[in-house]
Design goal:
The chain is α+β, with helices and mostly antiparallel strands and about 150 residues long. β1 and β2 form a beta hairpin. The protein is elongated, with a radius of gyration of 25 Å.
């Protein structure tokens, strides 16, 4: 069975309202307020995703707890930002892994506090968390060869 995309706008308003345990008019109001905004068909009908249904359920939980709709809207916005950032981190991690697998034996360089590029020995850790690490391919050396030592390196 194919996996359903949580962001696919596939649910009509009546179905989304039923799944969220709300009246369709409530969903229309939330849409007007910009709280949970569904996709639209070419004809203008609202189409909700499974993620929208989860957001609607969260709105209900938070509003029952006494939270205001503007505060709930802010929470939903922050959750969307976190989801986007997590996706970007996953994509960047995949790109780094792909790059590392395409370049076996790559050398590692770090940018020191003064901005100077420092060559690191294999297995050496970056001195501070603020150092920037760049990957560069080895040029004409075997994987066992030591990288040249810079004057900045201790």
């Amino acid at each position: 069975m194919a996996e359903v995309d949580d962001d696919a706008p596939i649910l009509a308003i009546a179905v989304a309202a039923e799944l969220a345990g709300m009246h369709p008019q409530t969903l229309r109001q939330y849409d007007r307020l910009g709280l949970v905004v569904p996709a639209r068909t070419q004809g203008g009908s609202r189409r909700y995703s499974l993620r929208h249904v989860e957001q609607l359920r969260e709105v209900a939980r938070l509003s029952v707890g006494g939270m205001s709709l503007p505060a709930i809207a802010r929470i939903l916005d922050l959750e969307d930002q976190v989801r986007t950032l997590r996706r970007q981190v996953r994509e960047l991690e995949q790109r780094v892994q792909a790059e590392a697998s395409q370049r076996p034996g790559a050398r590692v360089f770090a940018a020191g506090a003064s901005g100077a590029v420092i060559t690191l020995r294999r297995g050496t850790r970056v001195r501070r968390a603020t150092d920037v690490v760049l990957w560069r391919p080895r040029v004409g050396t075997g994987p066992e060869a030591e990288p040249p030592r810079d004057a900045d390196q201790t």
